[in-house]
Amino acid sequence: MNPMLRSFSMFIRQVLNDSMLAAVCCASIFSAFFIRFGIPAVDNVLNSYFQKETNLSEYYLLFDLLLALVTPYMLCFASAMMMLTEYDENIAGYLAVTPVGKKGYILSRLAFPAVIAIVISTALMHWFSLTVWPVWMVFLTCLLTSLTSVAVVLLLFTFSHNRVEGMAMAKLSGLLILGLPVPFFLSSGVQYLFSPLPSFWIAKFCIERNLVFLIPALLTSLLWILLLYRKFNRKII
User: Fold this and answer.
1) Could you tell me which of 167, 230, 173 has the C-alpha nearest to residue 199?
2) Angle at CA 203, nearest 5°, toward 171 and 139?
3) Tens digits of per-residue pLDDT, 118-153?
4) Spatial CB neighbours of 36, under 8 Å, sequence gap ≥ 6
5) Integer Cα distance of 19 and 137 in angstroms
6) What are phi and psi of 160, to 5 degrees?
7) How would you class 134 by CB atoms within 10 Å of its CB: exposed for 0-12, middle for 13-18, buried for 19 or more?
8) For residue 201, what pLDDT is reported?
9) Do 107 and 94 form a contact (C-beta atoms < 8 A)?
10) Is the pTM of this model over 0.70?
11) What is the DSSP letter of 54?
12) Which candidate, 206, 25, 24, places its Cα nearest to that of 129?
């Protein structure tokens, strides 16, 4: 376990020494403050300007879901960028043949950041959410968003050759979270066209608060991870 922890601590130092990635990791905190205090303020301004209720409060749950997603997405984006840098400099291959091993390298770059993301996003949801959440819902939602973000890491790393391509690919990977607002704006069966996206089922699960939707949310996330992991695993070495 010690080699993995050393590898992870090296990863943390590398991220903190990179000003862009350090800013990316801090972005979730600024997003939390904006959602908690900025959205209600904007709602009040709009109500005063139009002299009527704008019903922005009906979408507070959607903003909470964005809050639950932004932390793991940002942390996993930083992880993907660092892995691409290590791949480009052949550090990944070197670490894979050290006592860290290939498995330890993958765990320190994928699993550890995802677990930390669950903890941080759960805390931010507890302090900054706009709606009332049961504790079990917060944990399960943050778990699901972290799994989705792991799929984003695999997508970025697998289909990019360097960090520049990774940043360009990050825009395309946003399609994985496109399903989040769909259940809020589409009530017909058309919404199920987005069912391959884990974010769609996460939103359904949170709106309905029905554990039935937890199953497709987990399955779609795991399916994306499994499909992408095969190529990711071959690319490491």
Assistant:
1) 173
2) 100
3) 999 999 999 999 998 999 999 999 999 999 999 988
4) 127, 128, 129, 130
5) 34
6) -125, 145
7) exposed
8) 95
9) no
10) yes
11) -
12) 206
